[in-house]
């Protein structure tokens, strides 16, 4: 139940494998059912070989249907989920820090060995065999053995040679009886085979803290430029003199304008006019400047009991509190402001491409090396994935594979085919020969919605629609505050449930802040009525009443249904005798024995 106690009843578990067939007559197998008693939780076992008649040749999906019937009321609820059967009890995955490696610069790859539930494999005795090579020929691979960390990770650092012929990195891994061949890592592309790389050094990037990056290059640089792009705007742009060095540590302050994702682009121009660039995406913590803290005492109370809430936020903030019954949230959520909704809204202003490797990487954010830069093979893709547009008369390398519809292997950005490229020794071409560049700003167009510089026209049909609802769920809290500290005393509603209390704060200077809390309203002895939605006049209806006893001893309870007004209903006599003069009853009472930590039902 929503107040934390377990449901007692009967569970029907049905299991059957999923078949995929191209035949007109589908393949069918009789499902396997088991009916077991349940008291909040039960474990049901099925033999895969005997019951489901499945082997271990390959992975299979199994459908599981569960229906639970409550013993006290007879109500049934069901759910369906799918379970994948695997041949091995563990799996290996390769986590790339970049989709492409750069010849002459460090390339880091992680091999993750976990169980299928996501927990890491911890084995200090058996090592993992790694074979790798910068070739497609597996006979030329180099073999190494590595021990697993406590997180089930193996960090592999490769230093690809500066060779135009080394275009691919192949990796194989073997642990006990499991052997995996991972997808290859391709080489980045550059006409001069020159690359620059930005690596994040700061372990937990946070707003209002310095961010450190290591900028590495395959040749000495006189200078390099860097830009930090956040929410579609260039927040920081600067030039750093490095005086013929290959490595430099860059530091800048992270601001709220860069959150939640800061795109850092570093680049410089060679003497022959080629633009050498790299980009890295940094996920910043502390997206919201404002805050709101909710402290509730006590965390569990009786219906009608006093609840003391203390709210803290920035001074002069406008604070809103909302308390919702957890049973309402189980029907449908999404009626409140969450941090995920705020993050998605902020990301909608970002013109860059979202990185593809974040979901599995979020579990291992403790290691700084797991922050990655977007997978881009050329300099032009670096700018595009960061949401930037470069206007230059230099060579921004672009590559179209043969057969991709272009028909040309190497062209420069903003320069159509058959346009001359700079001759050797000439740094630039004439800018008036280039075509016009179409620039798409991040500003939303008119009539796009309730955002900056946009509006929605008044609808033609402005007559309001009225919807009537019955038994509207009560809202416990709906309070507005404006000071930095506030104490609120409220009475808990007369509902046996858990209340989810959420709050937000809004300030003209510090913006939005969010918080949530849970309050449980509970008493050890109470009754629950299962009333129908509606009844017809003259109809006989039985009202089931459930008496719950969560005390340490058995209780004999008298359940009384009163009818003092004698106008709303009459007590029905369940018999074959016809009484011309119905008996007037002011109440009807039944006695029931309720065991400790259990419930009993009775109907009137």
From TrEMBL:
Keyword Signal: yes
Domain Alpha-2-macroglobulin: 475-561
InterPro entries linked to this entry: A2M/Complement_sys, A2M_N_BRD, Ig-like_fold, Macroglobln_a2
Any one GO MF annotation of this record: endopeptidase inhibitor activity
Domain spans labelled Alpha-2-macroglobulin bait region: 196-331
Keywords: Signal, Thioester bond
Name of protein: Alpha-2-macroglobulin bait region domain-containing protein
Organism this protein belongs to: Diploptera punctata (Pacific beetle cockroach)
């Amino acid at each position: 139940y929503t107040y934390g106690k377990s449901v007692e009843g009967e569970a029907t578990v049905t299991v059957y494998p999923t078949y995929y067939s191209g035949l007109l007559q589908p393949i069918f197998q009789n499902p396997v059912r088991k009916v077991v008693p349940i008291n909040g939780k039960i474990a049901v076992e099925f033999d895969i070989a005997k019951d489901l008649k499945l082997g271990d040749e390959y992975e299979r999906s199994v459908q599981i249907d569960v229906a639970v019937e409550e013993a006290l009321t007879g109500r049934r609820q069901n759910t369906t989920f799918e379970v994948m059967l695997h041949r091995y009890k563990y799996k290996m995955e390769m986590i790339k820090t970049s989709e492409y490696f750069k010849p002459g610069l460090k390339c880091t790859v992680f091999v993750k060995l976990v169980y299928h539930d996501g927990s890491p494999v911890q084995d200090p005795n058996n090592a993992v065999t790694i074979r790798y090579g910068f070739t497609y020929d597996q006979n030329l691979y180099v073999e190494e053995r590595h021990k697993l960390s406590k997180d089930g990770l193996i960090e592999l650092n490769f230093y690809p040679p500066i060779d135009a012929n080394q275009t691919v990195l192949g990796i194989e891994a073997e642990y006990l009886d499991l052997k995996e061949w991972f997808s290859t890592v391709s080489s980045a592309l550059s006409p001069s085979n020159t690359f620059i790389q930005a690596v994040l050094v700061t372990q937990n990037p946070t707003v209002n803290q310095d961010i450190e990056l290591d900028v590495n290059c395959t040749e000495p640089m006189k200078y390099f430029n860097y830009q930090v792009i956040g929410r579609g705007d260039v927040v920081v742009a600067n030039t750093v003199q490095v005086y013929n060095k290959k490595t430099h540590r860059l530091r800048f302050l992270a601001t709220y304008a860069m959150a939640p994702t800061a795109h850092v682009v570093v680049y410089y121009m060679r003497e022959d006019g080629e633009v050498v660039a790299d980009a890295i995406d940094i996920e910043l913590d502390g997206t919201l400047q404002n805050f709101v803290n909710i402290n509730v005492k006590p965390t569990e109370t009786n219906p009608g009991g006093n609840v003391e809430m203390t709210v803290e936020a920035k001074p002069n903030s406008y604070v809103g509190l909302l308390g919702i019954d957890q049973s309402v949230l189980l029907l449908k959520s999404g009626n409140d402001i969450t941090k995920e909704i705020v993050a998605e809204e902020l990301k909608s202003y970002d013109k860059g491409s979202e990185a593809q490797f974040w979901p599995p990487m979020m579990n291992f954010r403790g290691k700084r090396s797991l922050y990655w830069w977007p997978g881009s093979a050329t300099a032009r893709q670096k700018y595009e994935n960061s949401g930037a547009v470069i206007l230059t008369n230099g060579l921004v390398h672009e590559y179209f594979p043969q057969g991709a519809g272009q028909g040309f292997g190497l062209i420069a950005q903003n320069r159509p085919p058959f346009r001359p490229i700079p001759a050797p020794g000439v740094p630039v071409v004439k800018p008036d020969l280039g075509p016009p560049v179409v620039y798409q700003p991040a500003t939303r167009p008119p009539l796009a919605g309730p955002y900056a510089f946009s509006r929605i026209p008044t609808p033609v049909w402005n007559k309001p629609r009225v919807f009537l609802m019955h038994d509207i769920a009560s809202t416990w809290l709906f309070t507005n505050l404006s000071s930095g500290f506030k104490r609120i005393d409220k009475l808990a509603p007369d509902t046996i449930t858990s209340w989810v209390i959420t709050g937000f704060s809004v300030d003209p200077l510090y913006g939005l802040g969010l918080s949530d809390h849970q309050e449980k309203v509970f008493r050890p002895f109470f009754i629950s009525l299962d009333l129908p939605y509606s009844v017809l006049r003259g109809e006989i209806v039985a009202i089931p009443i459930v008496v719950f006893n969560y005390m340490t001893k058995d209780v004999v309870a008298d359940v009384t249904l009163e009818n003092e007004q004698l106008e709303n209903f009459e007590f029905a006599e369940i018999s074959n005798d016809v009484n011309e003069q119905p008996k007037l009853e002011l109440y009807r009472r039944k006695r029931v024995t309720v065991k400790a930590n259990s419930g009993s039902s009775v109907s009137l």
